Amino acid sequence: MALLLSFPAKAQQKITLSGYVKDKASGEGLIGATVSVRELSGTGAATNEYGFFSLTLAQGTYTVVVSYLGYATYSQTIQLTSAQKLNIELQEDHTKLQEVVITNTEKKDENVRSMAMSTMKMQVTELKKMPALMGEVDVIKAIQMTPGVQTAGEGTSGFYVRGGGVDQNLILLDEAPVYNASHLMGFFSVFNADAIKDVQLYKGGIPAEHGGRLSSLLDIRMKEGNSKRFAASGGIGTLSSRLTLEAPIVKDKGSFMVSGRRTYADIFFKLSSDEGIKNNRLYFYDLNLKANYTLGPKDRLFVSGYFGRDVAGNNSGAFNWGNATGTLRWNHLFNDKLFTNTTLIFSDFDYSLGSKEKSTEFTWTSHIIDYGLKNDYTFYLNPQHQLKFGVAGTFHKFQPGKVKPGPQSYFNEIKLDGTNAVEGAAYLSHEYQLSQQFTVEYGLRFSYFATVGKGTIYEYAEDGFTKTGSKEYGAMEVIQQYSGFEPRFSAKYELTESSALKASYNRMRQYLHLLSNSTASLPFDVWVPSIHYIKPQIADQVAAGYFRNFQDNTYEASAEVYYKHMDNQIDYKDNSEVFLNSRIDTVLLRGKGTSYGAEFMFRKQKGVFTGWVSYTWSKTDRTVPELNGGKAFPTRYDRRHSVNLVSTYQLNEKWSIGANWVYATGGAITMPVGRFEYEGHTYPVYSSKNGFRLPAYHRLDLAVTYDRPRSLTGKKYDSSWSLSIYNAYSRKNAFSISFRENEDHPEKTEAVKTYLFGIIPALTYNFNF
């Protein structure tokens, strides 16, 4: 009897296989690599943000297969009799020029098998083959060419996801928030592609560990540094130059990465004989730093930072803005199943504006500073159950504006009241594989937000403008607090080995708000916390999709539909002023928003020809009782149709060509439709809010790259030349529309279109050794 009881117990004994998946050449952890078991169909795991995986299986002999896009598939037979560590190094696949031939039955199908939907993952190698504006490869520009994402306008780095505003996107760089991701007033983003390892955009199905924004999460991870050998890469272009250095601290144990980029238009200004041009300053720079060190078999430490700034001006005045972020992370393995990451976070976004003219001399400065702490856990119970839980807290410091006049200036000193806030969250999520075909992930996030003093809060009469009283709050005294639950749910049903249906539901709460009257995200816009007159924004989104892969994951196809409802959307009274307004609460309005649409995408990821084509149909509107007679109106960034074509063709080992073509319905605008005279003055009569459309936007970009790999040249480094042409057929896309009296017929009003770019060629030399 004892033998009968002990045998099944032994047969069911579970053993844990865990380890890291890394790049063989650099030692970088690979995010999202698939670890599967050939003998157990549907059993596997994906590596986390640090390349770690854990699988708990019954005792036995298994063939472990590890795959990652762009790398040769790795397989190893193991005898699993006790807990085992398996650290795997994948080698880049250099057979990309050959036609894809299916020689085995291994199915990767990560697009189908993963729980992720409404997401877009991009590799930096893919980004670098795309045509670039002025030769600068840009993460944000690439994101703008994916379904469900709209651009703010020509050349801008602001983006809108499924009907949300630019402030409704949470942008994280190594877990630190980036509040303004633009350089040169939005023409470029702050993300230097040479320093980036992984880019992932979540438009829906956002994991429970993330919150604070309504529409999307853009998660960007920096390179960790080469732990095998010294390496350097960089480039010299028509606009900027860049250099990245990587090296081991201790081989296979620790490494560092330093990456810098700077433009140099200001250097050429100094060569001009025109004093007006000679004294101009216009440049930006970036500096990315990262280091990591393995303290022991269960502990690893990471430290990373970003510092960037834009400077523009002349002898009359100047303005500048910049970001500084820093993270300190500690990975710890309690055991083979429990992984934790603790992160200290710092983020500072500041800007300043000034005049040097004696009578108008002033300096205006503003800051938003975050100090944060996160503690995240992942418990790999077994292949059918995975738990994630954790807590996070952030202290926000808002310094909206301080104006200091010069000694002879007629300006008075102005200082808007600063505000502090405390934000916290706790979450729990569970991924549960009910069967080989059906998997669900459900979670709950609880968030808390409190605006705290020191500060003064004004009370107003029914007109919303006349002050009737005020209340003073002391340091750290709670002024206003909000909290709420944010449920998350995702489900996946695999119809076949290469197709699946997925669905998701998100509730998101946003406690920080960007106040801006402009369409694009400008550096001088004002961030404010939720307070008694600004309630938290809340969004509920549901989405469903069909995903299908072909020819061993060579082709990916997807179709998704979504619906999003948003409460407490901020708008402004007509002719309101946000800039340096000490009574901003008197111009704010609240309303509701809806957004719905359908997104289609077909993507080819392997072979000599790669890229994607996507189409989005969408509709976004707002309803604000005090605007447009209380009727719904389209948002400024509502675009009914959007098409993106992105392609790269590898002619041979040396030559490749790339092309992008984009099309979008013109943005919605308000236009004058008539005029009337009153007491000798002429006044315009406007259409309904955003009742007209700008002309449709479309553009073709081209790129040619000439590679000189060391395998062909016999040199110790790789190099390449890249020629890109932005707006190849010189489409004059409308950046804005203004109105004026016709010179020949003053009684008539004419529309004037402003556009930014014609054809812009750029040449860049790149190297890597």
Characterization of the model:
The protein is mostly beta strands and 769 residues long. The chain has 2 domains: 14-94, Carboxypeptidase-like, regulatory domain (Immunoglobulin-like), CATH 2.60.40; 220-768, Maltoporin, Chain A (Beta Barrel). It is built from 7 helices and 51 strands. The protein has a 22-stranded antiparallel beta barrel. Strands 9-16-17-12-13 form a 5-stranded mixed beta sheet. Strands 1, 4, 7 and 8 form a 4-stranded mixed beta sheet that branches. The model is unreliable at 1-11 and 96-107 (pLDDT under 50).
What order do the helices and strands come in, and which of them pair?
Elements: H1 2-11, E1 14-23, E2 34-37, E3 44-46, E4 52-58, E5 60-67, E6 74-80, E7 84-85, E8 88-90, H2 110-113, E9 119-122, H3 124-127, H4 139-143, E10 149-151, E11 159-161, E12 169-173, E13 176-177, E14 182-183, E15 188-189, E16 196-202, E17 216-222, E18 231-237, E19 240-250, E20 254-263, H5 265-269, H6 275-278, E21 281-296, E22 299-313, E23 317-333, E24 338-355, E25 362-382, E26 385-405, E27 414-415, E28 419-433, E29 438-452, E30 455-460, E31 467-473, E32 478-496, E33 499-510, E34 512-515, E35 526-529, E36 537-550, E37 555-572, E38 588-604, E39 609-623, E40 633-634, E41 641-650, E42 655-664, E43 668-669, E44 672-678, E45 681-686, E46 692-693, E47 697-708, H7 710-713, E48 718-726, E49 736-741, E50 749-754, E51 760-768
Parallel strand pairs: 1-7, 1-8, 12-17
Antiparallel strand pairs: 1-4, 2-3, 2-5, 5-6, 9-16, 10-11, 12-13, 14-15, 16-17, 18-19, 18-51, 19-20, 20-21, 21-22, 22-23, 23-24, 24-25, 25-26, 26-27, 26-28, 28-29, 29-32, 30-31, 32-33, 33-36, 34-35, 36-37, 37-38, 38-39, 39-40, 39-41, 41-42, 42-47, 43-46, 44-45, 47-48, 48-51, 49-50
Pfam families: CarbopepD_reg_2, Plug, TonB_dep_Rec_b-barrel
Domain TonB-dependent receptor plug: 123-212
Family: Belongs to the TonB-dependent receptor family.
